[in-house]
Specification:
Shape: elongated
Number of helices: 3
Distance between the termini: 49 Å
Order of helices and strands: EEEHHEEHE
Largest sheet: 4 strands, antiparallel
Number of strands: 6
Helix content: 10-25%
Strand content: 25-35%
Strand order of the largest sheet: 1-2-3-6
């Protein structure tokens, strides 16, 4: 039995921008702007209220998960996968080690 030891992916920051986009940062350092228009264009009881721009802007993070007041939420894993597929995800730059001290 193999246990996944990676920490659970969460969002660390979220901001709604017009029209129907979410600027997000993930706990793994990746970030980007998710175009939510296709998602909220789908029929569904949870997505219907999100079509109102003011309501869409009420998104907040609850335990690292984007959540609206009607309890509609988006899985961070699904969100990251969608953003990666669409080319909306920016991966963090790898950390570089400095060689020596005080050298240019």
């Amino acid at each position: 039995m193999s246990l996944d030891r990676r920490p659970r992916l969460k969002l660390t920051a979220i901001r709604a921008v017009v029209p129907f986009k979410l600027v997000v940062t993930f706990s793994d350092g990746s970030s980007g702007t998710f175009d939510a228009a296709p998602m909220i264009g789908e029929r569904g009881e949870g997505t219907e209220p999100l079509r109102d721009r003011r309501f869409f802007g009420t998104v907040e993070l609850k335990n690292g998960v984007p959540t609206w007041p009607n309890h509609f939420d988006i899985s961070p894993g699904w969100l990251r996968e969608e953003m990666e597929k669409r080319g909306e995800l920016q991966l963090p730059l790898p950390l570089r080690r400095l060689r020596g001290s005080g050298q240019n």
